[in-house]
Give the backbone structure.
Amino acid sequence: MHFVDAKGILTTSGGKCGMNIYRGCTHGCIYCDSRSKCYHFTHPFEDIEVKQNAPELLERSLKSKRHKCMIGTGSMSDPYMHCEENLRLTRKCLEIIARYGFGVAIQTKSDRILRDIDMLDEINRSAKCVIQITLTTYDDDLCKILEPNVCNTKRRIEVLEEMQKRGIPTVVWLTPILPFINDTEDNITSILKECVRVGVKGIINFGMGLTLRDGDREYYYDALDKHFPGMKERYIKRYGNAYELPSPKAGELNVIFQRICRENGLLSNPEDCFKFMNDLPEKYEQMSLFE
């Protein structure tokens, strides 16, 4: 990893505020979109760029903001990857968010977030906290191939359970679903049943497939050659260089997804999930576990 002094930390778009304390990732997920050339990385993806002055920049920004809002993090780079173990920059930023009465929405695959559950609890009691966990693959052995350097799905489900115990609302990203690999009824149903059991608020899915851009396509195809011989050729034959790669089973899987969400009162429209995550009412009442 290498350290930089960033010029700014908060980005604002459409009334939403987001931040990325780190740039790059060490999780090694074979499908990672953040590797795409369109994001203009000037360093190796695993050589994490650390914005060492992120807490100071965040405090300066929040001091000057006239209205409270939700602060999102984790959309590009996981705030709880390996370097957070010692640097604790995410923790420091959470302390600042709590101090100034803002809310936070965090997206992660890592159980390191449990180290900060006390701070997340404090933010949720005073403003609002939403934890987003990505779940793609229920089978442990397959999960280890697809997401090799991060805790498996069953451990992430335990993270969801711990958040539920504190009354901290959770949203699951059920994406990407990889054609011919984890696009099975058993996989989708197993994950959804666990989401229901642990009481997530909503599930985000974009149609049961994945997207590939220049940069991440090459990385993904190299992984297919390594772990699934012949699969790359199957992809090229079916999809060419398409950006969107829907599963051949997308229709039937979406029917299952919508039915289970509807029957259990889970948000299933991405727009509804994003609205819930981005909305910070003037007086936020802590969500009931049984809403």
User: Anything to note?
Assistant: DSSP finds eleven helices and twelve strands in the chain. The mean pLDDT is 95. The CA atoms of residues 55 and 138 lie 36 Å apart.
